[in-house]
Design a protein that fits this description.
It comes from Lipomyces starkeyi NRRL Y-11557. The protein has 387 residues and is an alpha+beta fold. It is 32% helix and 24% strand. It has two domains: 3-95, Orthogonal Bundle (Arc Repressor Mutant, subunit A); 121-386, 4-Layer Sandwich (Penicillin V Acylase, Chain A). The longest helix is centred in the N-terminal third of the chain and has 18 residues, at 44-61.
Length: 387
């Protein structure tokens, strides 16, 4: 069963309760990520140095979230830099280069199964003619992290600029946020993108995900990140951001050290994204590291187009639309490297241990979501969350 944490109080209180109630899961995350970072060639010293740099940036730009991280560390009885490293795991493993290179790994310009840490995802957004706003994702990651999932239900504290907003996010124990939505009907998804660009003076992706969930709309989230929180991200990634207000709105953000590249919805009100850049123009030095990313993107579009021929989407009930989108996420074409991914025993290293860890479909107009834990085709647990 997913560990559901109801968190309120000061920022430190929220963190301390998180760290206390998820202590064993956080310790498990630290063990798993030690392997993850080592496979990326990062020594413990490299990780600590980067965590120290990011800790300073987080404290400067978002002091309330730095207080929450301190609380998590104290509650879990671990050093602060360990918790910061968890929240900067994308930056450390997908963008950073170790201080002293290991001879057995060629960094950033190969696709070796052992060296490359996996983090694949498939995201879909749809604004329908009747004003509904849907946002959905399969989050693909290491099977070992299944046991470390948490659902955070947070009342933002008085010292937060977002005081009064409530948020719900599926994430890994010890992280500030990942994929979820808030009481203002704003939702966010994450897709890993891989590039060699890194800026420790900007906030890590998972900190920015939390800031999106502390926003009142898509436009508010983009403005806050652009104007108040550094103007970009420490490393390259994709955010699918949507809100269920006034007929719905959604954008794809390819965000990195050089800013936010916005991709608007297509003529059908839809957005699709996997694990490669679609917009271009951000001066990012991208590395394509999941060969199936283009195949999953094409397959998702194919499934949606086939569904259009069978359904009047605007005429579907909420339950029917939810089931329709989950059907996309359950697809096993190109198995095992499909939208609904499972472990690929033909691959070495961490890529062979990668599967869909959870799926989520969000109905932002009604501020609710459905979660399937594990591969949605054969889920281990299903539940609904709502405001």
């Amino acid at each position: 069963m997913v560990n559901i944490l109801h968190l309120a109080g000061t920022s430190y209180d929220i963190g301390f309760k998180h760290g206390t109630l998820a202590r064993s899961q956080i310790h498990s995350c630290l063990v798993n990520y030690a392997t993850y970072f080592a496979n990326a060639g990062m020594s413990p010293g490299d990780v600590e140095d980067l965590a120290s740099a990011f800790s300073s940036t987080i404290q400067k730009l978002t002091p309330h979230l730095h207080d929450e991280l301190r609380g998590i560390a104290d509650g879990a009885n671990v050093p602060l830099f360990d918790i910061v490293a968890l929240n900067a795991r994308s930056e450390i493993a997908l963008a950073a280069k170790p201080a002293s290179s290991r001879p057995d790994i060629e960094y950033h310009d190969d696709v070796d199964d052992v060296a490359i840490p996996p983090d694949g995802c498939t995201t879909f957004a749809e604004t329908t003619a009747d004003g509904a706003q849907w946002l959905a994702q399969n989050w693909d990651w290491q099977t070992s992290q299944l046991a470390n999932l948490v659902l955070l239900e947070i009342d933002t504290p008085a010292e937060s600029p977002a005081h009064g907003i409530k948020l719900k996010t599926m994430t890994e124990a010890g992280l500030l946020a990942k994929i979820g939505f808030n009481s203002e009907k704003v939702g966010v998804c994450l897709n890993a993108l891989r590039a060699t660009d890194l800026d420790t003076d900007k906030l890590p992706l998972h900190v920015l995900l939390r800031l999106v969930l502390e926003s009142e709309s898509v436009a508010d989230a983009r403005r806050r990140i652009s104007e108040d929180f550094g103007g970009g991200a420490a490393c390259f990634g994709h955010f699918g951001v949507a809100d269920g207000k006034e007929g719905g709105h959604a954008e794809s953000w390819e965000i990195g050290p050089y800013g936010i590249g916005v991709i608007e919805r297509d003529q059908h009100g839809r957005l699709y994204h996997t694990n490669h850049a679609l917009k271009g123009g951000l001066r990012i030095h991208e590395v394509i590291w999941l060969e199936d990313t283009t195949e999953r993107l094409a397959r998702l579009k194919e499934l949606v187009e086939a569904s259009d021929k069978k359904n009047d989407v605007a005429g579907l009930s909420v339950e029917q639309q939810k089931d329709r989108i989950f059907a996309f996420l359950k697809d096993e074409d190109n198995y095992p490297n499909s939208i609904c991914r499972t472990n690929d025993v033909s691959r070495r290293g961490l890529l062979g241990e990668m599967q869909t860890v959870f799926s989520i479909v969000m109905d932002l107009k009604d501020a609710k979501a459905w979660v399937a834990v594990g591969r949605p085709k054969h889920s281990l647990e299903e539940f609904e969350v709502a405001f």
